[in-house]
Design brief:
The chain has 276 residues and is mainly beta. It contains two helices and 24 strands. It has a single domain, classed as Sandwich (Jelly Rolls). The mean pLDDT is 96.
């Protein structure tokens, strides 16, 4: 588990591309037969992946957590973006199809990820944050998620948001999680952009053809930066940063948040004229 530390916006202004990617981008996710996690000091958020091919992958604890087991003081959301599989939680199996999300509450001790077919393995995207209360293990399918349609074809940002772990969905302590799907012929996500000082966020891009790219924009509205992201890349968005992208093809991205509240609409919009 790699630890990523805080970066002050005044420092980020002077980052070159190599340092920007090192601090905020993860391009090692969805590696077969590996559990890969990144721990950012922003709200103590952890994100990563597990791709079990053949044998299952168990969730251990890590020295950085100083805990007897991973979810002793944490909660977790897991989204399957691959083939069929299952997650075993304290002896109970949960079947996981593509688009399913499983919430694991604080106090969950044993977690193991498995695939049904090694030739088409499950690909689990993981989000976790500290929790001060316990909520039950809950599974939701895409049909269970709250659907929100946004954007329009004229602005090339027509998209559908699927909310799974949120105030009116799967209950959690502070974790919020779901994904956004761009409609064919549309490229822009989260544009017009916004920031939210009360929450950090991580984007994970998926279902993007291997030869296509998303230009992801981040940074303070008055000093934006860009990074080129590809399929299965993740990027951290600090509370002071915008988080938006334009792709060369339609794509999806999972989003996960933690912080002071769970209000999806708690954001500070940025006008086009204030961007630079």
């Amino acid at each position: 588990m790699q630890v990523k530390y805080h970066s002050h916006p005044d420092s980020v202004k002077f980052f070159d591309m190599a340092q920007l990617r090192s601090e905020f981008v993860s391009d090692d996710l969805m590696t077969n037969n590996k559990l890969i996690l990144h721990y950012t000091i922003f709200d103590r958020f952890i994100y990563g992946s597990a791709v079990p091919v053949g044998e299952s992958i168990s969730l251990p604890t890590f020295d950085a957590l100083k805990s007897d087991y991973f979810l002793q003081r944490r909660e977790m959301g897991v989204m399957n973006v691959g083939g069929k599989g299952s997650i075993t939680v304290d002896g109970t199996d949960y079947e996981m199809n593509n688009g399913d999300v499983l919430y694991l509450g604080r106090g969950t001790k044993e977690v193991a990820f498995a695939s049904n077919d090694a030739s088409d393995p499950a690909r689990y995207y993981i989000n976790s944050c500290p929790a001060h209360a316990e909520y039950p293990v809950t599974k939701a399918t895409r049909d269970d998620a709250n659907r929100v349609d946004l954007g329009d074809q004229a602005h090339a940002n027509k998209r559908v948001i699927y909310q799974y772990i949120h105030e009116d969905g799967i209950q959690s302590c502070q974790l919020v999680m779901g994904y956004t799907e761009l409609m064919p012929g549309n490229i822009w996500n989260t544009f017009p952009p916004h920031t939210h000082d009360r929450r950090m966020e991580v984007y994970f891009y998926f279902d993007l053809p291997s030869d296509e790219v998303v230009m992801h924009f981040m940074g303070e509205p008055s000093n934006t930066k860009h990074v080129a992201l590809r399929n299965y890349n993740a990027v951290i968005s600090p509370p002071w940063s915008i988080h938006a992208g334009a792709g060369t093809n339609a794509y999806k991205f999972a989003w996960g948040m933690a912080g002071e509240n769970q209000a999806f609409t708690d954001m500070d919009g940025v006008a086009y004229g204030d961007l630079s």
